[in-house]
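Long-time lurker, first post. I've been practising inverse folding by hand and with some scripts of my own, and I keep getting stuck on stretches where the structure tokens seem ambiguous. Below is the full token string for one chain I'm working on. Before anyone asks, I'm not after the true native sequence, just a reasonable design that respects the backbone. If someone could post their per-position residues I'd love to compare against what I wrote down in my notebook.
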């Protein structure tokens, strides 16, 4: 099978690389991992021309071919390893026109690897605002590669970029000139390394000389020979790298002098600089940040209310329809109380999941998410971290698994470990269905001062509570873990941009689809297992229940509705699920929970959102009117043996607090083990989070009951 034509997108962070990837691939994308590492691998297919379709790889952002993090190491290995399965046939270097000097450094390094290159210039509007004019034709001549201006957000220049790719594909045999001459800073050993490793460029040989001990594709015999060669030559890695960078910047300066003009030696203040004076202000900036978060959580309720109601009513109608047309029996019970109840527990929360991810994408696309890292750097330092830890924590609002993987960009090992250990305390999207269901049950849907929705305020409070507990735990761990290593937080702030709404829409559809497919499969399987556990029990006990209520129905036929309800409840209590729930009830009773909630706590360890599907199944099986009322109505009417409501304010708040702090996700523990390469840290994480969750829920219940 012929290998597909492969194009790699590379560039500095915040250069517009992800936007271009989305434009080129549209919905034809998938996310996996690079072989042997946990770094995200975004790939897609793009139709370049009538005769050329390309496999597009979005490589992690990096500033140069000298990696400092796991993400940058992946880009480095893919570009340098000629035998890599992901080795590109062509590289598109996305270069920020408003910071061209720094971007051309990375471009010049890639051209010297003898990989065909096309430069895609982005941010031309920002360059013009700064008074910078670029002669792209002259730049292409002096760099020796095609240069195309693009604006992926507005879908401009994409046709010219595809034409440049097609032309480069047709002329791939054209020799690529060296950007700098390495002969003056190296020796004969460079040619021998090039021959020894089968490399096609002097620059690739130089990188092997600098990093042969870390490169996975260099074998033991090659390492021994390279070490001997470099020892004889008196090779000094840092000196060699410094001389190379100096040579590159000298040539880049010459190119920029001839290809660019600036209206004034003083950079013009663009709109981003003006906005930052307000949004990064120590007082106004933090106040605006709180307002942004407030609007984010209010919107989850405002925008999702109607589609959630429509979905819920659709399932009620479907349940009523199945109840009307299906005969009584096991099949009807399975379809209505098992399968339909499980699916409804997934579908009803899809609008909220999509809205949450859409709003987060808007913050990222606009450039404001990076400002959140900057604003929170001071408070993070009080906990022994820095602003670099903020991005994994914020990503944890979506899902803890990729958020923990994102901690690889933190170079300090102690800060990285602490970030991994506290990230699951951030409320992820899997908790959102639990939060919204319980908030709707126990918090009145009313406004404060006519504008603040009380339910939205409680939701925001839960997210902030998780964040501040993460800081407290980080502070304790910072005290317990001793190290002398110090780090500094350096960050480039991207310019403010209008969000690319197509990208927002693609993200919402993808995340909604992932929730339905990946999480949905788990919920449906567990819902069917739960249905079986709730529908069947020890034969002797189930027969006794049947006999008891058959007699009662004969004696009091006029009370059929009440007896049927009691009968369904008794069957559930004596089922296998009921036995499990009653077994753990003594442990959870002090928190205000009944045995049904206990079952949901157990099943939701597979995934937090399974709690909703579990409750949907249990309240369907345990209710003779299954399919005729919504889950919210059933839970609202749930009573204990003494006739008091199950979901009081105290019990609801206790359960909310438990889910804020508890580790209820096997996948998160698995990724922590993978990232730390030890079971010690996942065990510690599970124990401390469960301890905080149990004690906090106990305190809240005792205070509010």
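-- Answer (accepted) --
I ran through it position by position. Result:
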């Amino acid at each position: 099978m012929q290998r597909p034509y492969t194009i790699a997108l590379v560039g500095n962070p915040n250069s517009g690389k992800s936007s271009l990837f989305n434009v080129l691939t549209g919905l034809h994308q998938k996310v996996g991992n690079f072989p042997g590492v946990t770094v995200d691998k975004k790939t897609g297919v793009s139709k370049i021309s009538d005769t050329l379709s390309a496999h597009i790889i979005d490589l992690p952002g990096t500033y140069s071919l000298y990696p400092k993090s796991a993400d940058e190491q992946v880009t480095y290995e893919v570009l340098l390893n000629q035998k890599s399965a992901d080795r590109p046939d062509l590289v598109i270097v996305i270069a920020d026109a408003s910071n061209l000097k720094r971007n051309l450094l990375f471009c010049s390094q890639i051209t010297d690897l003898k990989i065909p290159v096309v430069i895609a210039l982005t941010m031309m509007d920002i360059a013009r605002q700064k008074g910078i004019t670029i002669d792209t034709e002259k730049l292409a001549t002096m760099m020796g590669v095609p240069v195309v201006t693009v604006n992926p957000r507005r879908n401009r220049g994409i046709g010219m970029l595809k034409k440049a790719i097609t032309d480069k594909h047709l002329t791939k045999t054209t020799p690529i000139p060296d950007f700098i001459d390495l002969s003056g800073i190296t020796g004969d050993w460079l040619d021998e390394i090039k021959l020894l490793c089968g490399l096609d460029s002097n620059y690739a040989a130089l990188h092997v000389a600098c990093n042969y001990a870390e490169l996975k594709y260099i074998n033991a015999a090659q390492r021994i020979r390279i070490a001997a060669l470099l020892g004889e030559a008196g090779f000094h890695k840092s000196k060699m790298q410094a001389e190379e960078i100096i040579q590159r910047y000298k040539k880049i300066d010459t190119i920029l002098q001839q290809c660019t003009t600036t209206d004034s030696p003083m950079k013009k203040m663009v709109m981003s600089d003006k906005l930052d004076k307000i949004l990064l202000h120590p007082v106004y900036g933090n106040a605006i940040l709180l307002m942004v978060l407030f609007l984010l959580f209010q919107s989850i309720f405002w925008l999702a209310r109607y589609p959630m109601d429509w979905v819920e009513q659709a399932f009620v109608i479907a349940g009523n329809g199945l109840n009307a047309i299906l005969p009584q029996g096991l099949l009807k019970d399975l379809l209505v109380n098992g399968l339909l109840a499980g699916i409804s527990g997934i579908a009803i929360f899809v609008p909220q999941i999509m809205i949450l991810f859409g709003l987060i994408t808007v913050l990222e696309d606009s450039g404001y998410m990076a400002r959140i890292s900057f604003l929170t750097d001071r408070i993070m330092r009080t906990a022994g971290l820095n602003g670099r830890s903020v991005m994994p924590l914020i990503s944890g609002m979506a899902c803890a698994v990729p958020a923990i993987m994102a901690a690889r960009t933190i170079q300090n090992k102690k800060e990285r470990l602490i970030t991994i250990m506290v990230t699951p305390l951030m409320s992820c999207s899997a908790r959102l269905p639990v939060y919204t269901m319980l908030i709707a049950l126990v918090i009145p849907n009313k406004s404060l001062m006519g504008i603040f929705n009380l339910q939205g305020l409680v939701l925001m409070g839960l997210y902030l509570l998780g964040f501040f507990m993460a800081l407290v735990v980080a502070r304790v761990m910072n005290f317990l873990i001793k190290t002398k290593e110090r780090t500094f937080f350096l960050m480039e702030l991207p310019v403010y941009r209008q969000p690319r709404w197509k990208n927002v829409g693609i993200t919402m559809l993808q995340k909604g689809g992932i929730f339905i497919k990946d999480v949905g499969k788990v919920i449906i399987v567990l819902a069917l297992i739960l249905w079986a556990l709730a529908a069947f029990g020890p034969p002797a006990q189930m027969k006794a229940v049947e006999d008891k209520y058959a007699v009662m129905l004969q004696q009091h036929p006029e009370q059929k509705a009440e007896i049927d309800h009691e009968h369904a409840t008794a069957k559930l209590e004596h089922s296998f699920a009921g036995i499990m729930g009653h077994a753990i009830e003594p442990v959870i009773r002090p928190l205000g929970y009944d045995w049904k909630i206990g079952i949901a706590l157990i099943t939701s360890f597979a995934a937090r959102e399974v709690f909703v599907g579990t409750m949907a199944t249990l309240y369907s099986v345990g209710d003779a009117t299954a399919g005729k009322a919504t889950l919210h109505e059933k839970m609202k009417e749930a009573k204990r043996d003494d006739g008091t409501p199950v979901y009081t304010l105290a019990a609801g708040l206790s359960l909310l607090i438990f889910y804020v702090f508890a580790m209820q996700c096997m996948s998160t523990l698995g990724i922590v083990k993978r990232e730390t390469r030890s079971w010690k840290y996942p065990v510690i994480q599970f124990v401390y989070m469960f301890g905080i969750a149990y004690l906090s829920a106990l305190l809240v219940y005792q205070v509010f009951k």
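A couple of notes from the structure itself: The two ends are 68 Å apart (CA to CA). Residues 518-704 form one domain. Happy to go over any region you disagree with.
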